[in-house]
Amino acid sequence: MSGGYDEYASREDATDSFWEVGNYKRTVKRIDDGNRLCNDLMNCIQERAKIEKAYAQQLTDWSKRWRQLVDKGPQYGSVEQAWMAMMTEAEKVSDLHTEVKNNMMSEDFEKVKNWQKDSYHKQMMGGFKETKEAEEGFKKAQKPWAKKLKEVEVAKKSYHMACKEEKQAATREANSKGEATTPAEQRKLQDKLDKCKQDTQKTKEKYEKALDELNKCTPLYMESMDQVFSQCQQFEEKRLAFLKEVLLDVKRHLNLTEKQNYVTVYRDLEQAITSASPEEDLKWFSNIHGPGMHMNWPKFEEYNPDLTHTISKREKSKKFNEEVMLTNVRAPGGNVQAEDRGSVSSYEKNQAYSSNEWSDDEQKGLNSGSDTNGGSNPFNEDGGEGVRVKALYDYEGQEQDELSFKAGTI
User: Fold this and answer.
1) What is the pLDDT of residues 319-339, one digit of tens each?
2) How far apart (Å, rounded) are the C-alpha atoms in residues 358 and 64?
3) Under a CB-based contact definition with an 8 Å cutoff, are residues 361 and 331 in contact?
């Protein structure tokens, strides 16, 4: 029997090599994937920019809220200023993150968008020009070799079928010798076997010839395919290099530690915190609210009817439940007792507030009493020398014996 064909031998599995017919499509698909990856990168940058914007806004809102709380709270002194420095830090960092967001959208996002537009050209019928050119280049390079490969596959199939028939004919011819067969039948089986051997030899020669022709055109096929593949590699190299460049730009925008402004923010914050002095704050509090405060200690003073008085009226309406302060009080001689007024202690002022409140009935008694003591009625228009006062606010009389006046009236 010619050849070493085994009918039980299975055909080798086709490899997934680039050189197999049609396997160039993965390289072509990479071009379309590159365009899609540009869209993904733009979405990635856009989402990160939104995060930066939201974080900047949160810092601003936080700073505004806590600045008001600390300002209105009980904290005081240099420690309060150090606390406020945290809000200043947040505002400055918020500005930096807003700048990051603006740089990512105006520079990085637009850079990818423009590169994509310049690198991928859409066709009216769909797809991209670059994809079509690559696919047509691979098809043209692979077509001659694919044709030869098909001829080899046909010749191979014919040869294997001839080998199979030859083996079957040889088996029948061998079995006939042990059986009761006529010479004519044996001669017929022998002729069949001889014919199968001849067919096997012919198909083998055709198979070997087709394979030899395929091998002769393989170098040219590889060269053409490699040329088209190199063009695709160059295009992909540009995309990868551009992607690396954009990612470095994004990193530069995101890395605030490389910005001098960012370093300054935390240097100022540290300086503000370390400058806080608990000792100075305690001293300040002692002077303003503690034993260090000035005190008009009580001392003996002669009676002076011309001191400042506070008149409080019980009004029917809560809206006008306020105090009237008489200012610029002048004695009959016309001299203002400024020194005596300033020497009144806080205790005496409180006593004056309570002792100088009177009702309408009590006022009559006081008016008559002042005449008895030789004093003049400050509200008597008939008097030659009255006490002049200046109104601090508008007031409308609620009773018949009350005056109405405007702020500033003398």
Assistant:
1) 444 444 544 444 444 443 433
2) 49
3) no
